[in-house]
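Incident log, support desk, overnight shift.

02:14 A customer reports that sequence design results differ from what the structure should imply. Their input is reproduced verbatim below. On-call engineer (initials T.W.) acknowledged and began investigating.
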């Protein structure tokens, strides 16, 4: 059985417009397995099971608020705000639409540790927009077309780093006015005859940064791979715990378009990533796509959070309740928040151990 993606890309890509200037000659490669990690069993408590939760997709933790991206029509907005101390629902902050202060397809949140303001990315309008207080502001950047973008984060120097179906590298750097500057990292693995944009879709990843934005972590969805970058290039490549590579097919049409089709055996690896200035936290599934579809929900879930430091060293395994979809970490590193769907949408909070 094949699971075809919804985004078509051109098989005949235009070359020579941009050059991958990543000149880093060597990358620190780290391999690990679960049995090498100290394991902590965490017990969660209900942070909120508010009726306001419809179809939560991701979350981010501010200093006093929890921000939840919700894709359900149950709510009047894409962004739900909860009081971090009580779990009380405060407001639906962003209306769905294509207006200047609306989000049509909110896809990623970027609130730096201990900040109640941050950047929201709308994939359908290719814009990253600043959120402050209880609403979007008019501070907005339209990103130049570099292929479909999955994630966007703000980094040092007001540069935007994106993960998407780019024609080179793994990530892309955009200038403060949204122009494509260059690509980061080597091209993803695979047959060079397969367009890089297709391979980047196969190796789609989630992004997070530290508070200053001078370090970026990329956790790959369909491969057991975590990468750490700065704006000059890739610093660390971490493989594990299962060393899986994606299984996929490539399809095309008479117009020269190509797209991927994932297989039953394709691994679902990292589901979510968040970070503090000390550690990286990556939610891991480790099951196959066929298994996910056989559950009847078609939604990947996990119960393992792998902790790394910013040098790429695996530090610990956090065992949480099974069924987590996404995670977020408080800026002080004391609490982990996780989204669950079953039996009803809710968010659990876990007290984090002192990993050291």
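02:41 Re-run completed on a clean worker. Output:
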């Amino acid at each position: 059985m094949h699971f075809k993606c919804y985004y078509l890309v051109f098989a005949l890509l235009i070359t020579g417009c941009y050059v991958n200037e990543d000149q880093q000659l060597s990358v620190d490669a780290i391999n690990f397995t679960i049995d090498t990690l100290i394991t902590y069993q965490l017990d969660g408590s209900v942070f909120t099971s508010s009726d306001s939760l419809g179809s939560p997709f991701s979350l981010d933790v501010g200093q006093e608020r929890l921000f939840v991206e919700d894709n359900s029509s149950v709510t009047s907005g894409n962004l739900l705000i909860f009081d971090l101390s009580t779990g009380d629902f405060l407001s639906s902050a962003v209306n769905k639409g294509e207006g200047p202060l609306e989000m049509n397809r909110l896809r990623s949140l970027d609130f730096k540790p201990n900040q109640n303001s941050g950047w929201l990315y709308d994939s359908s309008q290719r814009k990253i927009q600043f959120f402050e207080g209880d609403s979007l502001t008019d501070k907005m950047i339209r990103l130049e077309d570099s292929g479909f973008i999955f994630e966007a984060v703000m980094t040092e120097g007001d540069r935007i780093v994106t993960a998407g179906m780019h024609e080179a590298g793994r990530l892309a750097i955009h200038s403060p006015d949204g122009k494509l500057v260059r690509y980061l990292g080597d091209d993803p693995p695979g047959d060079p005859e397969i367009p890089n944009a297709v391979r980047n879709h196969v190796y789609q990843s989630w992004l997070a940064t530290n508070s200053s934005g001078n370090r970026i972590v990329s956790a790959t969805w369909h491969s057991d791979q975590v990468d750490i970058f700065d704006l000059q290039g890739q610093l660390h490549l971490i493989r594990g715990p299962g060393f899986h590579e994606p299984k996929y097919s490539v399809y095309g049409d008479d117009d020269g378009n190509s797209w991927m089709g994932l297989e039953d055996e394709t691994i679902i690896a990292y589901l979510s990533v968040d970070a503090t200035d000390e550690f990286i936290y990556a939610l891991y599934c480790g099951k196959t796509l066929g298994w996910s579809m056989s559950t009847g929900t078609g939604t990947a879930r996990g119960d393992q959070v792998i902790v790394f430091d910013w040098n790429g060293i695996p530090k610990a395994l956090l065992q949480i309740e099974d069924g987590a979809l996404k995670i977020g970490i408080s800026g002080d590193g004391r609490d982990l928040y996780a989204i669950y769907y079953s039996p009803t949408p809710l968010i659990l909070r876990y007290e984090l151990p002192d990993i050291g």
